[in-house]
Specification:
Blueprint: E1 27-32, H1 36-40, H2 42-50, E2 57-62, H3 67-72, E3 79-84, E4 89-93, E5 96-101, H4 105-112, E6 119-122, H5 142-149, H6 157-170, E7 177-180, H7 187-202, H8 204-213, E8 219-222, H9 230-240, E9 248-251, E10 255-259, E11 275-277, H10 280-304, H11 310-314, H12 317-331, H13 343-355, H14 363-367, H15 370-387, H16 393-412, H17 421-426, H18 431-435, H19 438-441, H20 448-464, H21 471-475
Parallel strand pairs: 1-2, 1-6, 2-5, 3-9, 6-7, 10-11
Antiparallel strand pairs: 3-4, 8-10
Helix pairs in contact: 4-6, 6-7, 7-8, 10-12, 10-13, 10-15, 10-16, 15-16, 16-20
The structure holds D-mannonic acid.
D-mannonic acid is lined by residues 183, 222-224, 292, 295, 365-366, 373.
Amino acid sequence: MTRLSHATLANLPETIDRPRHDRSMPSGVVHFGPGAFHRAHQAPMFDALLADDARWGITGVSLNSRDVAAALNPQDGLYTLALLDAQPDFRIVGSIARVLTTQEADAIVAAVASPDTHLVSATVTEKGYCLTAGGDLDAAHPAILHDLAAPRVPRSFIGWLVAGLAERRRRALGGLTILSCDNLADNGRKLGAAVATFAGERDAGLRDWIADRCRFPCSMVDSITPATDDALRARVEAATGLADAWPVQRERFTQWVIEDDFAGERPELERAGAILSTDVRGYEAAKLRLLNGAHSALAYLGLVLGYASVAEAMRDARLAAFVERLMRDDIAPTVTPPAGLDIGRYIGAILARFANPAIVHRLSQIAWDGSQKLPHRLLGTIRDARAADRPIARLAVPIAAWMRFIDRTAAAGEPLVDPLADMLLARAGDPRAILDLDSIFADLGRDEGFCAAVLNAYTRLAQSHAFDTDERAGSAA
Ligand code: CS2
């Protein structure tokens, strides 16, 4: 079958939406981590802007693999986006100009240090930031140690970013906006602080230049994006008549709330549906704690119960009821919603999104990187509940379910997708030893009330899948 590319766009059926802008656009954006989430969420918004503002093409930078570059570059950066609903909708996205890999080190630095570039954005996942449990740059992280010793051939996102910014300064260009789009509380603030620490280790003048000229707004991103599978590739071929090496899919719902704090030129993303706000923190906490917290709870409990997808797990009435109570009774009281957000309705909408039968979102995908995700998704909520003297028995259940998931993975001899996999698998069956891992639990590992609640939930999970939602569960701790 003919492959999707600039030259074959004309073969598409008329009903398939496609980019109509001049595709020799400059890249105003350098995006680190052009995986499925970026391509399903932010890149289509830039595509919409390009219709009448040519500045906002994207150069993607893949730090860990060449797969995206190998799939997209032969397609001139084009790919298909499927919006999943009762009636799926397919469109071609054309905002990505090219994808670089670390084999093109000079080109990465040159892209960040180009006069066309105004924005660097990132979806490098939680682990890509190399932070400690307290949210500071982890100076002992092997990639950070490497990058401080060899700043011209870095490995970490922070190292590449600072290499590009140093070159911008050398070329006497202006500063940039650096926009984190990852699921971290206070993502922009943490990134800015990590960059300042790293740059300061290299050169105090560079650190001050960055502080004076660059901005690190926080942002909240939300759209459920199941990983690409062969079923999607087949649907895309049938609908478009063209082969696409890496189409992406997401639910129709999408939300991007961005702190209005930019250096220099700013893309008018509000024209593409983004919300520019001064209260991103409220949106971020609501989304991260409620949606992602509940997602991780469903993933570990659902996998332990033998389910494969979110919608399937939601069809188990006990599990759906547990997750709803977790959100309404345990998480919501720790969230201060931004003006205009009705938290009750927000929770209702999340539950409906989880139950969407048109989406096969695999629990195993959400279960990845638990050691990196749980601190942002659930441990902050638990700390707040402890400080307010509220019960944490229910909140401890997903933590215990994660430990049971590690046990099962170890027993099956399957790989655990987590940067701390070796450490976690070595502690399988010993929940107390996992609670002692300072890089995950920090102070909570020394909080006997918390540890007792987790160990209690761990025991009950083995006995009866005991995620019951009765009052005892809610008040036991
Ligand atoms: C999910 C998220 O994979 C996961 O861990 O919880 O990717 C989630 O689907 C998105 O954050 C929704 O916006």
